[in-house]
Amino acid sequence: MNRQRSFIGFIVAGAIALLVIAIAGFYWFFAKSPANLIASTSQPGAAIFVSKLSPAMVSLLTNPERLQALDREEELSKLKTSLFAKSGIDYKQDVQPWLGNEITLAIATLDIDRDSENGQQPGYLLALATKQPEKSREFVELLFSKRALAGATLAVEQYKGVKLISDNQPKEDLLAGAVVGEGFVLFANDPKVLRDAINNVQAPDLNLTSSPEYQKATKELPKGGLAVAFLNLPVVAKWQGLELPEQLYNSQIISLALNPKGLLAETTFLTSSEIPSPSSPLFKPVGALQYVPASAGLAISGSNLSNLGESDLAKLWSQATATIYGSGEDVVSRLVKPLVDVQKRWGINLPEDIFSWVQGEYAVALLPEKEQTNPHWIFVVEKSEGVKQGVARLDAIASSNGLSINTLTIDKQDKQKISAWTELTTATKKSDVKEGASFTIETKVRGLHTALGNYEIFTSDLETMDEILTNKDNSLIDNPNFKDSIAAIPLPNQGYIYLDWTKSQNLLERQVPILKLAEVLGKPFFDNLRSLTVSSYVTDTRSLKGGVFFQFNNS
Questions:
Q1: What is the CA radius of gyration of the chain?
Q2: 15, 53, 149, 345: which has the highest count of C-beta atoms within 10 A?
Q3: Distance between terminal CA atoms of the chain?
Q4: How far apart are CA 416 and CA 404, in angstroms?
């Protein structure tokens, strides 16, 4: 294959990879000083070229060379070498001297020719900030001259004062480029995309900066963010051929910023219409987590499960999963699958039989073990009106499923009364008696619960209950990694989803198979990921704001 072929594919894929690897590479920064890596601008300047109907735009707001010091594994260097080797371009000599402090990639249009009968071909726009316009013009001329030497026929046109250059490569490999003004070099997979970009600048009501949704979203950006992405959610759904069950939020903006202990990805969902106020109050979730062992691989905490299905968070989750997966599939149910299995085995309706009476704090945790396919589980509930009746109802359900309710104690914990749901089973063993086999009766524990302080605690097995009772000073809230994670999340908030990646990786790969693909694509990121913490902490009638905090092994 001609080495000039598929260059636009490398440009688009390379830009995406550069942003992903740069973001994943931020964790290497923590041996450095945060003052050494601050974004030069808080918003993408290239937004003026992007249509307000664009489904997505992502920007790196610092020069890649400033990330080079973080590149201990030389992932960025390898990417730049492989990307430009396909074009016969020397990055260090031909690109580095003029490249500025922004790289923006946008899906400019869902269909370049707007003709649905011949299929949908998205238009991609890549904008590179330039600090030396003349040098960047030389680069564009050099790039297309090399493509001409490789057999392409070039087309040159003047469009509204801008020189556009394109070639006649096959449609999927076509490349068009231009230097616009003194600020940006543009590349696209069709000259029409470049002409539209120029129109967007000269008719400001067409570009993204004129969108009220985008204007509201950019007000949510933190200072010093190093990367930002903006999504037009209805258009993203259309692009993916999806029909959302309920259109609650119209747009989403994501920013990445460094923290002394890790990387904070902050996101805000916005809507132009009024939505109900959140059903769950903002709070400081601490109490229930004191009964979750530090060995937990996954912990979810919050308050008030009684109206979970109607909350704005539940509606947001439904929209997000439909946009990403093509359906309203409940990915959280995959994460806490052991509890879902209990629901099926016992015939429990979680919203009616449990959520309805959980009005205070709660915590759900999984304790994975390498030897076991199914992890141990813990469910902690703050005592409030209805809890006593709720526990009695679970006892009744257990009894109706043929389980016995017994009171027991654990060695060294003889003062702590524990209620156990048990099942009697028989087992045969070889007998020395000729008449036949002998039988033994075994007792299997299907679940336990006990009261500690102001909380009711449920566990899957005796070992887990014993760990809670005997290691009261070794809880998750005493874990330094967990402390660092929640310290990065603003207070008050609506709770946490804390995931210890090193402990839960095998479990998550079984429950969410797409993670294996993500790990391949983001190997340097996942190889060094220690944990992530998700929380929602600002919500009103027109927006919902939260974040994901990533911790890395050398942070």
A1: 28
A2: 15
A3: 44
A4: 19
Coil/strand/helix, residue 254: strand
The residue to which tokens 């009772």 are assigned: 469
Question: Which residues have CB under 8 Å from 28's CB, separation 6+?
Answer: 70, 71, 72, 73, 554
How far lies 331's CA from each of 162, 245, 473, 512, in Å?
48, 16, 32, 8
**Residue 357, token pair as written in the block:** 């009476």
Pairwise CA distance, residues 521 & 75, whole Å: 12
For residue 492, say if its preceding peptide bond is cis, omega within 30 degrees of 0. Answer: yes
Which of 500, 503, 507 minimizes the C-alpha distance to 338? Answer: 507
pLDDT of the chain, 555 residues: tens digit per residue: 333 333 334 344 444 444 444 444 443 333 333 334 445 556 899 999 999 999 889 898 888 777 655 555 555 566 555 556 566 777 788 888 999 999 899 999 988 877 777 777 889 999 999 999 999 999 999 989 988 888 888 999 999 999 999 987 666 678 899 999 889 999 998 999 999 999 999 988 999 999 988 998 888 887 778 889 898 888 887 777 766 656 667 888 888 887 777 888 888 888 877 766 555 556 665 689 999 999 899 898 888 877 665 555 555 555 555 554 444 445 455 555 566 666 677 777 777 888 888 888 889 898 887 666 678 899 999 998 889 999 998 999 888 888 888 888 877 666 788 999 988 777 666 555 455 566 677 778 888 999 998 999 999 889 999 999 887 778 998 888 899 888 888 888 888 889 898 887 776 666 555 455 455 445 556 677 888 888 887 767 778 888 888 888 765
Nearest-angstrom CA–CA distance, 353 and 348: 6
- Is 27 strand, coil or helix? helix
Who contacts 81 (Cβ-Cβ below 8 Å, separation ≥6)? 91
Residue 287 · residue 382 · CB < 8 Å? yes
Q: Bridge-partner residues for 441, per DSSP?
A: 426
DSSP category for residue 475: B
User: How deeply is 378 buried, as exposed, middle or buried, from its count of CB atoms within 10 A (0-12, 13-18, 19+)?
Assistant: buried
- Secondary structure letter of residue 307 according to DSSP: T
**3-class secondary-structure state, position 72:** coil
pTM metric for this prediction: 0.78
State the number of CA atoms in the 13 A half-sphere of 40 facing the CB: 15
Element (H, E) at 546: strand 543-552
- Helices 501-511, 514-521: inter-axial angle, 10-degree rounding: 130
Phi, psi of 257 (to 5 degrees): -140, 145
Amino acid 495 reads: G
